[in-house]
Amino acid sequence: MNSLDFSIIQQAWPYLWSGLLFSLALTVAAFLIGMILGTCFALVQHFEIPIVSQIVRAYIALIRSIPLILVLFWFFFLVPIVLGHLSANGRPIPIGATYTAFITFGLFEAAYYSEIIRVGLRAVNKGQFEACQALALSTYDTYRSVILPQVIRVASPIILSQTIILFQDTSLVYVLSLTDLVGAASKLAQLNGRLVEMYLAVALVYLVISSVTSQCVASLRKRYAFTGAHR
Amino acid sequence: MLQQRADRPAERSPIVVVESLVKRFGSFAALSDVNLSVAKGEKIVLCGPSGSGKSTLIRCINHIERHDSGRIVVDGVELTDRMADINSVRCEVGMVFQSFNLFPHLSVVENCMLAPMKVRGLSRSEAHDRAIGLLRKVRIHDQANKYPAQLSGGQQQRVAIARALCMQPKIMLFDEPTSALDPEMVKEVLETMVELALEGMTMVCVTHEMGFAREVADRVLFMDRGTIVEEGDPDAFFRAPRTERARSFLNQIIH
Question: How many CA atoms lie within 13 A of A16 on its CB side?
Fold first, then answer.
């Protein structure tokens, strides 16, 4: 292994591409599940719904104190057993690596997004709620049309950086023997012995995707900014 | 103007009735035994030192503050804890806040369209037409597509007035609408309020703008420590207040 040979990347590209698609699909799915569930979690706590809000708080505290890789393991090995106990014949019901990955990442990210939204909700000026009351808006319309859009906009930089972390974390699916971009690269690297080229190429892909996303969001924010002397 | 006053609005049917109203914040009595009757078309100015309960009183009228005891009847509907009652009262009562409270993520015209569409069930185009009409009335329709942060304080407050009017309320409450404004912007907001008053809107205004009170108010109520201490004709009140508390308050605001 003397000099770098990047022609290997070209040959490996179709396989890497399918790995990348899996990473992106997992990121998008976990983002959607996480945001929807996380918003619900945040609202449950915001409204201080008895019992449910305590359960949600405990869940978030638990998830946030455990490494994602452990959660993946547990989910993969324990949930089939639990499901088995719940079913009639008592035998474990496998849910498969792909489902495990999508569900676990969604549930895991929900805890983080929920904290972001919860803090954002607290940051909304009390006058906004009063204006909604004075206009006779229902609680649903108040949150749907006035409060949450402001929370999402204010919190979007933090939501974005959490999502970029999520995108990078998707490489952990190797513990479930799933092949994402990193997994595809390392498998090929071991086959052809071109570790450096492979990992450089993969790092470049992550760099490009993460920085392009950041740029897009920054310019979107500029266009739809409502900052300034608002009261 | 004097002729209009001679036709005492107080003798017409009341649209807001407040009886023995009590509101506490913990052990502090913000309102103790307040009675008030507002006739249809009447313009009332509420004044008094800060903490006297004037804002709390008008915030109870549309149930932004929940009262502890007493009765509030707005346009024949008694305010109870039932959401249906609260909403039917809020539909008839518009409110303008000291800090405008426009929705920063919506354009000026969208601010005005939201509640008519969601609450009154107007279609998008109906709500848009109504919003533009009322923005024209407050002379700000040329800014309809801007966002609140792009407007001056006075313009924002006029948008807030238009937004409240889009619900076609029977009563308008103003909670120190000019207190957060730079002096040169106070006039444009007061002019809008005077126009509204001349059109016959029922108005309850918490304000220390004496010129406004003199020009449009039918009655001035002076509040102190949670009760209405003095009420009367604005000219008489500002020229010769009867109570010592009102006298010392007026001395403080005129310098």
Answer: 21
> d(Cα B192, Cα B163) in Å, to the nearest integer?
13
pTM: 0.86
Q: Which of B136, B133, B132, B90 is nearest to B115 (CA)?
A: B90
Tokens of B154: 């006075």
Query: For chain A, how many structural domains are there in total?
Result: 1
Looking up tokens 């740029």 gives A215
ipTM: 0.91
Burial annotation B231-249 (CB, 10 A radius, 16+ → b, else e): bbebeebbeebeeebbeeb
CB contact under 8 A, B62 and A134: yes
- Residue A77 in any domain: the answer is yes
Tell me the chain B residues in contact with residue A136 when contact means C-beta distances shorter than 8 Å. 87, 90-91, 115, 119, 167
Substitution target from B103, B106, B156 for chain A, most A beta carbons within 10 A: B103
DSSP state of B150: G
For chains A and B, what is the number of CB pairs under 8 angstroms? Answer: 78
A166 CA: distance to closest CA in chain B (Å): 28
Secondary structure of residue A103 in the 3-state scheme:
helix
pLDDT tens digits, B224-243: 999 999 999 999 998 889 99
Q: Which domain holds residue A160?
A: 23-181
How many angstroms from the chain centroid is the CA of residue B128? 24
Contact B33, B206 (CB under 8 A): no
How far does A70 lie from chain B, in Å, by closest CA? 40
Query: Alpha-carbon distance B124 to A221, whole Å?
Result: 27
Distance of CA B237 to the CA centre of its chain: 20
Q: Report yes or no: B114 at the A interface, CB cutoff 8 Å.
A: yes
Asked if residue A231 is part of any domain, the answer here is no
Q: B114, A146: Cβ pair inside 8 Å?
A: yes
Q: Residue ranges of the alpha helices (H) in A47-147?
A: 52-64, 68-86, 97-123, 126-134, 139-141
Residue A163, domain CATH: 1.10.3720.10
Q: Do B180 and A231 make contact, defined as CB atoms within 8 angstroms?
A: yes
Q: Of B83, B143, B82, B63, give the one whose Cα is nearest residue B111.
A: B143
d(CA B53, CA B224): 7
Q: What is the pLDDT of residue B2?
A: 44
Residues in chain B: 255
- Residue contact B62–A133, C-beta within 8 A: yes
Q: What is the pLDDT of residues A107-124, one digit of tens each?
A: 999 999 999 999 999 999
d(CA B72, CA B86): 11
Determine, yes or no, domain membership for A54. yes
Tokens of A196: 């450096």
